[in-house]
What we know:
flat; mainly alpha
Amino acid sequence: xxxxxxxxxxxxxxxxxxxxxxxxxxxxxxxxxxxxxxxxxxxxxxxxxxxxxxxxxxxxxxxxxxxxxxxxxxxxxxxxxxxxxx
Length: 86
């Protein structure tokens, strides 16, 4: 098993803010839920990350309002995906 020293991981993560990390996790998680072919699971994933973007303080995301707006959009779109999947 390949293990990286914590300094390498830390130096990589210091280049990004928490909003960018959440966005990466959202995309990877969305790609992971697509093979399940369940709109309910995809919708719940979208709502969860929408709430995560909305509730995270702006000071942790380098004061970029675009992540909060993206979160609001996800909170609106997520329930629509859930309802259309039933």
